[in-house]
Amino acid sequence: MVLAISFLEAPLKFRAPGVTIPIGLGIGRLVFRALNLAEIVLAAGVVVAVVVGQPGVAVTVLAAVAVVVLIGQLGAVRPALNRRTDRVLAAPEGAELPRSRAHFVYIATETVKVLVLLALGILTVAG
User: Which of 30, 68, 27 lies closest to 46 in space, CA to CA?
Assistant: First the structure.
């Protein structure tokens, strides 16, 4: 889900014919809200599995890192992106706003999350 939405859907939707910045931002808000809800549910499942299953240290640490990254995204990065979206939508048409560093932070945290989840999956299957 993270790969499909964050690294494919998000940048590509703005290239679709007829998709304006406001429409793209509105779609993005809906899609990322749904993604984040799914991630919360899945993260809760991972926490329960770790507590009940008592896996090894490596699996526990990777699961914890994934959950902490998600919490950081939801608590700090997503609110910053939402504020940026609000500013863009409120700006007069054609106004140029400075680029947002929050997007780069979000991409970095998404990359970390994907790598951690990949490692977690490999360890879980191999272990």
Answer: 68
Q: How far apart (Å, rounded) are the C-alpha atoms in residues 90 and 83?
A: 11
10 Å CB burial of residue 63 (0-12, 13-18, 19+) is buried
Look up residue 119 and give its amino acid.
A
**Could you tell me if 24 and 13 are in contact, meaning their C-beta atoms sit under 8 angstroms apart?**
yes
Distances (CA, A) of 117 to 33, 75, 99: 20, 20, 29
> Amino acid identity of 36?
N
Band of residue 82 on the pLDDT scale cut at 50, 70, 90: very high
Task: Count other C-beta atoms under 10 Å from residue 78's C-beta.
Answer: 17
Does the pTM of the predicted model rise above 0.85?
yes
Question: Can you give the pLDDT at residue 61?
Answer: 97
Cα 50 to Cα 7: distance, rounded to the nearest angstrom:
28
The DSSP element (H or E) to which 27 belongs, if any, is helix 21-53
Instruction: Say whether pLDDT at 43 is over 80.
Output: yes
